[in-house]
Amino acid sequence: MKTNFNQFRVVLSFEFMSYLRNKVYIGITIAFVLLIAIGLSLPSLVAFAGRLAPAEPTPPATPGLEQTVHVIDEAGLLPDLYSLRMALPELRFEAVPLTSLASLRTEVDEGRARAVLYLREPTSYTLIERRAGSDLPGRLHQFLTRHYRTQLLLENGLSQEQVAEVLVEPQLQHEETVADSGKTTVQTYAYTYLLLFLLYMTVMMYGQLVASSVASEKSNRAMEMLITSTRPLNLMFGKVFGSGLAGLAQISVFFLSAAFFYTLNKAAWADLPFLHAIFQMPAIIFVFTILFYLLGYFMYAFLYGALGSLASRTEDINTSIMPVILIIMVAMFISIFGMMAPDAGWLATFSFVPFIAPMAMFVRICMTTVPPWQIALSLASMLLTILATGWISSRIYRLGVLMYGKPPRLAELIQLLRQAGH
Predict the structure, then answer these.
(1) Same domain for 288 and 350?
(2) Residue 181's pLDDT is what?
(3) Is residue 102 part of a domain?
(4) Which of 172, 331, 398, 405 could make an SS bond with 356 (beta carbons 3.0 to 4.6 A apart)?
């Protein structure tokens, strides 16, 4: 047992240190840290550049004709434009006669006036406006509706106080509860999606690196030398754990960098609540992120290593590991759709299904209240799946590392495993 542990430790150390010395690994880590630093420091950098730039003289503010709204009040709804000017102070309202409608339309078309408001009847009006997509129609409609109703109620004998009570709009306060955080679904959605995407990318990337490492050693015949000095089981577990440790180190660097640069520029992001929600997520969510990354990684990495051992050349890796990639993609799509209905029963069912549970249960924990027994049951099922996957993958690995030529089909592989068992 001591010999096995020493072999495993040597392979793990070698695999982990090979990542730390790999220029691509170092380059990707530095590039992402720089992107995080620039992205989170961008408002501060822009503000600093603005302070260094020479100040340009500000032209005096003069009311332009382009903000003028001509009002034709044929219905007599607005004998005084004072209330309209108070409701929309940024515009200049002018009362004009109906005879000038054609010339006013020309002014709007040529950009010399903002709009023409034609009040034909108390409940019917026309707005002529050149700009599409502005909020002026909605604001005018809201004002005119309230103004007409106020006048109608006053004419029917109600006082100003009674009119105000009748027209008051109820205020809706919308609250949602989320376990351990008290944040709303809108707030949790941001960091849930970000962390879910991070889990997906890291599990897929480092799993493929395990498969590539095995296939590369096999293609250059280094495996024949390694297999004589180290047990295949120790080789595979050492590679899987070494790659997982390298991935965990890289994720930790990303998290720490993001937290550091956000803290430095926190005041500059005060107007973006969704970004604030990401960095204010509960500590337990961070713990679950690391936990589900490790469980998801080991669950898939053993399969990657086993299937990678069946490829005789590095060019054949994509074909060999395609089934695993499809499973990860299915798990990702299920989890993304689950974010739209985190309380759905089908998502709860998938949170106990092997290979989908790491992402599905993570979504439920982030966005809903999950009973502790369900979390424990899901974790237990994932651990059992990892043990079963590791045992089966080690047998495939032992056969595949010395198998060259065309990768065997599934039926042939099952037959070879049965023969090896006997």
Answers:
(1) yes
(2) 41
(3) yes
(4) 331
pTM over 0.85, yes/no: no
The confidence score (pLDDT) of residue 5 equals 74
Are residues 155 and 294 part of one domain?
Answer: no
**Can you give the pLDDT at residue 115?**
84
- Regarding whether 345 and 269 lie in a shared domain, the answer is yes
Query: Could you tell me the pLDDT band of residue 334, with boundaries at 50, 70 and 90?
Result: very high
170 is a domain residue: no
Residue 204: C-alpha distances to residues 28, 69, 207, 285, 297 (Å)? 16, 59, 5, 21, 8
- Please report the pLDDT score of residue 346 as a whole number: 92
Query: What's the domain range around 322?
Result: 180-421
Banded model confidence at residue 387, pLDDT cuts 50, 70, 90: confident
Mean pLDDT of the chain: 76
Residues 187 and 123 in one domain: no
Residues 199 and 265 in one domain: yes
Residue with tokens 């040529």: 110
Pair 392, 267 in one domain: yes
Same domain membership, residue 286 and residue 192: yes
Q: Which has more confidence, 283 or 180? A: 283
Range 403-415 average pLDDT: 56
Whether 73 and 201 map to the same domain: the answer is: no
Give the tens place of pLDDT for each residue, 150-164: 888 887 877 777 777
Report which of residues 309 and 26 the model is more confident about.
Answer: 26
Is residue 326 domain-resident? yes
- For residue 213, pLDDT over 60 is answered with yes
Mark which of 159, 191, 209 sits at the end of a domain: 159
In a domain, 412, yes or no: yes
